[in-house]
Amino acid sequence: MRVSYKNLRRYKEIVHILIKYGFSFIVEKLNIEGVAYRIPITNPSDEIKNMSTGEKIRRAIEELGPTYIKLGQILSTRKDLLDQDIIDELSKLRDNVEPYDTNIAKEIFKHEVGLDIEKVFIDFNDKPLAAASIGQAYEAKLQTGESVIVKIQRPNIEETIKSDLEILKTMAVALKDFNKDIEVDLIQIVEEFQTQLLRELDYNFEAINAIKFRKIFRDSSEVYIPEIYSEYSTKRVLVMEKINGVKLSDIKKIRSNGWNTKNISDIGVRSLFKQIFEHGFFHADPHPGNIFVLGENTISYIDFGMIGIVDKKTLNLLNEVAIAVIEKNVDRVIYILMEMDALNTEIDISGLRQDLLYLMHYYYDVPIEKISIGDIMNEVFRFFRKYKVSIPSQLATLAKTVITLEGTGRELNPAFSVSSIGKEFMKYYYVNKFNPQRVFMNTKHATEEMILDIKTLPKQMRGILRNIEKNNIKIQIDDVKFESLERRITDLTTQISLSLVLASIVVGSSLIIASPNINGNSWIRLTALAGFFISFIIGLLLVIKIFRSQYRKK
Predict the structure, then answer these.
(1) CB atoms within 10 A of CB 193
(2) How many C-beta atoms surround the C-beta of residue 406 within 10 A?
């Protein structure tokens, strides 16, 4: 794998850490030019050997730095890609980093906003409230008296992350080229991660999300969204209203205040389904640290860097899946998965059918209060990994969000069950489905699409007939490992050619040696000996060629 020499030092750091935690096989597979063979491959310590694979991955990611920590956090939502033990370890990743100098933060603020800290705030706490991988947060008070949180991005973090993203892309391409049978699309994962991370590097994106959430809950008495002060917010600075409340994670304090935890958990469920079904736009990281309780009847969300988007068509398909599951109609579930392009052509349909049928019957008669959405989703995603079912990343994000919501709900209210989520799901789905205005709009859109199809059909037919007339019809055959087949045929023909040449030289030299005239002419003797020597060289090359070919197949 060729490397960009501007990133050579970073490649060396990555190789050292991978070897340290027992992932030297990745280094060998990547064959990082100029790096891999200059670093001795050593055995990991006994402490590391005793770690689980998930813990090794987590510890390595923590040492690799902010980019990889963010990657790990995003991958912790992808239960469709990774086993549960690895997901559990990645979920422990936190942005616990050393804070940088506040004077540097003030310089960044002045450069971004164009004003000194003292001109914007009457009070600014120099001690960071929190330090994360991308930036750190401070408490402050505006000149107009409002208490705010000021997030300021770390110096040079964008260059560091972009450099790491370039390395990740190179590694993903190299691994994919090395083993084309890898089922997971590594390049697509890195591209999705790059999109997510570059958005988090732009605080304007988080500000826009917060403003949108504030608009969604503008008339709600149950959910409060902090105000964004756009005049002081830029790509690297975010000024947001400070929320004074109790973190949802502090359940002891919530109960000591006499607040009804069941009511609070119900508000959380209602607020999530309002986001999903009414707007198709939801907070994708609703863990207890990102939710404040302002009172018995009000909660508040913070941290809008990670959001999910789901369209109406996908929601309709998910609802059809739910109905098919209730009716134990496995064939209908498989048909819908095909409609979603989630199944590839090589999938074992009969095996998938049997496993889905087992899953339905297993949970069908379990009392609803004993059912855990987390357990169900973990089982479903295990099937998805087994049968290589590909689902959109936003659906995986939605599933992770619902699982997080259930976990939070159970902490607040031990009696919280899947029925609480199910009731709200049915309520929001059918209220929106049979809303007269929505029915009218859906009918209008369907009619417009039908009219458009009718209008474009003659034009499409003319185009097809014109291409047939001009003999411009092309048949495209997808690549089904033809490159691998071509390489193996080339190797085989090369080996056969070398074998024929070797045999010819050996036979010719043997005939010369057996000739009665050999003793009378030294040149004939030398020619025979040279033939045997060349045969030895060709034979050696042939053996090397065979071993290299076998190694490449592994």
Answers:
(1) 20
(2) 23
Q: 72 with 92: CB under 8 angstroms? A: no
How far, in Å, CA of 494 to CA of 532, rounded? 21
Q: What is the mean pLDDT of each run of 10 residues along the chain (554 residues)?
A: 62 82 71 52 77 88 83 75 80 75 95 94 93 90 95 90 83 66 68 83 93 94 95 95 91 90 88 85 86 92 89 79 79 85 80 84 67 74 80 79 78 70 62 64 72 79 77 62 66 77 77 69 73 78 71 53
Query: In the chain, where are the structural domains located?
Result: 5-95+180-197, 96-179+199-217+226-242, 244-434, 482-553
Angle at 233 between CA 229 and CA 236, to 5 degrees: 150
In terms of Cα–Cα distance, which of 288, 277, 278, 286 is closest to 306? 286
Nearest to 208 by CA among 170, 240, 163, 176: 240
Residues contacting residue 90 through CB under 8 Å, at least 6 positions apart: 54, 57, 58, 61, 72, 73, 75, 76, 82
Give the whole-angstrom CA distance, residue 169 versus residue 197: 14
Helix, strand, coil share (%) of the chain residues, nearest 5: 65, 10, 30
What are the tens digits of pLDDT across the range 424-454?
A: 666 666 666 666 766 666 677 667 777 877 8
Catalytic one among 46, 285, 348, 479?
285
pLDDT, tens only, 352-398: 888 888 887 777 666 656 667 777 777 787 777 788 887 777 787 88
Q: pLDDT digits over 301-350, tens only? A: 999 988 888 887 787 777 788 778 777 788 888 888 888 888 877 788 88
Q: What is the pTM of this model?
A: 0.69
* Chain centroid offset of residue 381 CA: 14
Q: Is 285 a catalytic residue?
A: yes
Element (H, E) at 191: helix 186-200
CATH of the domain spanning 96-179+199-217+226-242, picked from 2.30.30, 2.60.40, 1.10.1200, 3.30.200: 3.30.200
